[in-house]
Amino acid sequence: MTLALPRIESAGLDGWMVRLFDSIDEANMPWLTALVRQCEASLSDALVDMVPSYTTLLVIFDPLVIAPGDVRQRLQQLLANLEPDDGSAEAAVVELPTWYDIRVGPELERIAERAGMSIEQVIEGHSQAEYRVFALGFAPGFAFMGRVAEAIACPRLDTPRRRVPKGSVAIAERQTSAYPQVSPGGWNLIGRTPAILFDRHRDGFSLLKVGDRVRFVPVSQAEFEQLGGDSQPMEARA
């Protein structure tokens, strides 16, 4: 795969949007992770945040430390010599303890019925796979992960919920994720994790980063609560 001519677009006084691709493809990820790594090295203390997606990288910097024009010039230099990550650096493996239960995962039954499977088989299908983080977005710390097994893939809800509880583990088509905080959402809820997915006091804020490998590890309700999870059923949150 070759890299088409990237575009650098203004994203305000303190940001540049680097558009590497025009279409979503799993093959994009080595290029994006390579650019993330090189931006960290090049911009150092001037870098405030980076938000990668399937096709772009938003670079946010401190304009009191570095001029916007200087950042653009550095990005141009990085892009001129960019090579995709070769996979030699082993991606981090993050395990997310997950309580799978219809009380917190009401779409377990929907997915099982659609797939002609039992709820236990849906849980097994989701928890035995290893997922890659392809993008961060929608909400701080929300990681788009794939790919979910085709057998348990399920379309988004026709009507999104106004309030999805923090930590909810969900499926949409062949993607999976966990909600970092309470928010609206239309994904199929199948469980809940007690993991803190976004923390302003954590280096990098987000627990998950693009390129990470993720496993959802089934735990009991008691284990979930011991880890700090909120087991209040969905019905009580209407």
UniProtKB/TrEMBL annotation:
Residues 6-208 form the Carboxyltransferase domain. The keyword ATP-binding applies. SUPFAM superfamilies: Cyclophilin-like (SSF50891), PH0987 N-terminal domain-like (SSF160467). Signal peptide: none annotated. The keyword Hydrolase applies. GO terms for molecular function: ATP binding; hydrolase activity. Keywords: ATP-binding, Hydrolase, Nucleotide-binding. It holds the Pfam family CT_C_D. This is Carboxyltransferase domain-containing protein.
